[in-house]
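ingest -> validate -> predict -> emit
validate: passed (alphabet ok, no gaps, 108 aa)
predict: started
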Amino acid sequence: MSWEDVRKIYRVSWHTVYKAVKHAVDYGLAHRKLDDIKVLGVDEIMCVRRTFFTVVYALDAGRRRLLWVGKHRTEKTLHQFFDFFGDAIKKVEFVASDMWQPFMNVIR
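emit:
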């Protein structure tokens, strides 16, 4: 549901919706566990005006989730994910990705 729909249905301000979403995101980040991920998925999405984002998912059976979004679709961006992911990379067994060469360079 969009923020606008939530705002209308609950008859609250944008600020109230923002605070609720921020609270949920902050809680999730504080309690996020990364050291049990064995399968990653790497892809890109295109948004407005050909702006690309790199997205990384955990693709473990029964626990699929978005882990990270980085602005742009470059090797540098994907390196930023692996910097964030840290030592948890040691437990990853598989990485699924399209065969876009800059991503493949980093994944290797």
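The radius of gyration is 17 Å.
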